Amino acid sequence: MTIAAPFFSVIVPTHLRPTLLRRSLQSLRAQSFQGFEIIVIDDAGSLDSALAAAGFLRPEDSFIKRGGRSGPATSRNVGLDMARGEWVVFLDDDDCFAPHHLAAVHACIQTSRSPVLFTDCEVVTEDRSQPDVPQLSRQLVALGHMDVNSLWVKNFIPPHALAYRRSLLEGCRVDPYMASLEDWEFLLSVCERAMPQYYAGGGVIQHVDNVNHGNRRSTQEVAMNNVVILDYLYAYRRRPAPTQELKVKRWELLKSVGIDLPVEWF
């Protein structure tokens, strides 16, 4: 039986977090708009992750166990290669969507000509050392006032707050060799083709564990200090700023941490 192509492909990379993966997938199955496929990519070959996904995946969904270097970048690329939807959304295994989110994205697509969209994000702080993962705080981070051109200097959009027309992503891939900022470098490759457009009313939820810092990839040693600066330099050089004003802002940011290069380098 041929399964009709979905409107959205939701790509979910996962790594040894079955409890959080279960929450993420549950939020997808609870969506009021159901025209989507789920593509889960497990980079660890974990039985627990496979079992966590098994209770939520439908015939049109996929669970991929991949080998090679671990990390979400390669997993996202595998998901992009498999995606059948007209639009692509990324969702990390520790984040989720409110039930109305995909319906809100779909409604915006009907009235917008932009091939890449973003919305606000609610940040939930939690304690993952506890079995029930209690919530400690919630805060809405409004993004509508942000200048999208500032993306050329520094990222402000969480990966799962974005939605992309799949045809726009032809040839775009997440760099698996960056220790940090790979989501932003990927977004810059998209910005070279089209700048994101904001819409209100999405249901993006980002979960962070500020209690147990070792559980957060962004606080691991490989993603801190000089390595982050190196990744900024790499992204800046690979994705040149489109205006002189943005070159100066890039120069100012790195000058503030002691890196002084000619403005034209950026």
Average pLDDT works out at 93
DSSP strand count: 11
| β-sheet strand percentage | 15-25%
SSE class:
alpha/beta
Overall helicity: 25-40%
- Specify the number of helices: 7
Shape: globular
Order the strands across the largest sheet as they lie in space: 3-2-1-4-9-6-10
Instruction: Report Rg.
Output: 18 Å
Termini Cα gap: 52 Å
Q: Tell me the series of helices and strands, N- to C-terminal.
A: EHEHEHEEHEEEEHEEHH
The biggest beta sheet, please? Answer: 7 strands, mixed
Poorly predicted ranges: 215-223
Describe this structure in words.
The chain contains seven helices and eleven strands. Helix content is 29%, strand content 19%. The termini are far apart. The strands form two sheets. The chain has a seven-stranded mixed β-sheet, with helices on both faces. The chain has a four-stranded mixed β-sheet with strand order 5-11-7-8. With 266 residues, the chain is an alpha/beta fold. The longest helix has 14 residues, at 225-238. It has helices at 18-29, 47-54, 72-82, 101-111, 182-191, 225-238, 244-255; strands spanning 8-14, 36-42, 62-65, 87-90, 96-97, 116-118, 121-126, 135-141, 162-165, 197-198, 204-208. It is globular. Helix 1 (18-29) packs parallel to helix 2.
